[in-house]
Amino acid sequence: MDWGLQNRLSRIIRPTDGHTVMLAVDHGYFLGPTRRLEIPRKTIEPLIPYADALMITRGVVRTSIDPGSNVPIVLRVSGGASVLNEDLSHEAVTTSMDDALRINASAVALSIFVGAPHEHDSLVSLGSLVNEGEARGMPVLAVTAVGKELEKRDARYLSLACRMAAEFGAHFVKTYYCDPGFEKVVESCPVPIVVAGGPKLDTEMDALGLTHDAIQAGAAGVDMGRNIWQSDHAIGMIRAVRAIVHERATPKEAHEAYLKGGKAKR
Ligand code: R5P
Q: Is the peptide bond before 180 cis (omega within 30 degrees of 0)?
């Protein structure tokens, strides 16, 4: 791995413990003003001190993030279908590598849609993005998107999608946690995996449990959005997630320290 690429990646996945807490706030690229992310700056700014990186689009970076905040940016560069479209897989690269470099991104991210109508296009886009990333020292995060077909989140499907992403040259992969079999997804993917939180779970303990189980099974970390910023205790939640990812806290310890302990504020 080239020095520059490795250096960028190490801004996201901490070399000290090989783990990361990425805060995902890119949902607007196909969902529009998602609940509690209606005014991006208001939601994101208080959470920045606790995020190892932001997963975000260029529009929200430029309008809503202070350039002096120095938080590493994982720039979403794919898009093209809204939530109103039945086929969410019709995406392409919409943000150039030049613009990613201007923004000083630490990585670029695009979705792949294995098994979906536009599987081929998304995989070819991944290959091209890796070619550009290798040429410029820019890590590529492949997101194994499932569109509206949530039943695809089983170990067999996720192993296929994650392994393919790594074979195409992605430097790290974002996927969903699954039970059973997540450790097999991790084992058969030769690059680090970060897990999405998915739609908000019933309780905060559910999200902390998911985080803990994913780390125990070998995930490098999380790239979590709604389960953090849709919580009434967003700062407490991200601090609790950090305690699990970086300090090996149990969900109960993390919950008690940051949510029940009264330290949590929205
Ligand atoms: C989905 O493709 C978006 O890129 C989000 O970044 C991703 O779903 C993670 O956010 P959440 O934890 O809310 O699922």
A: yes
Q: Count other C-beta atoms under 10 Å from residue 24's C-beta.
A: 27
**CA 76–ligand 1 middle distance (angstroms):** 11
Q: Is the pTM here over 0.85, yes or no? A: yes
Residues 220 and 194: beta-carbon distance below 8 Å: yes
Query: Which residues have a Cβ under 8 Å from the Cβ of 236 and sit 6 or more positions away?
Result: 258, 259, 263, 264, 265
Backbone phi and psi for residue 83, each to the nearest 5 degrees, phi listed first: -60, -15
111 near 86, Cβ under 8 Å? no
Q: Which helix (H) or strand (E) holds 133?
A: helix 119-136
Cβ-contact 114, 99 below 8 angstroms: no
Q: Give bridge partners of residue 43 from the DSSP assignment.
A: none
Which band of pLDDT confidence, cut at 50, 70 and 90, is reported for residue 225?
very high
User: For ligand 1, is residue 174 a contact (CB within 6 Å)?
Assistant: no
pLDDT in tens, 7-61: 999 999 999 999 999 999 999 999 999 999 999 999 999 999 999 999 999 999 9
Output the residue whose Cα is nearest ligand 1's atom 9.
196
Ligand 1 binding pocket includes 36 (Cβ within 6 Å) = no
User: Contact at 8 Å (CB) between 150 and 199?
Assistant: no
What are the chain's domains? Answer: 3-199 (3.20.20.70)
Ligand 1 atom 1, closest CA: 27
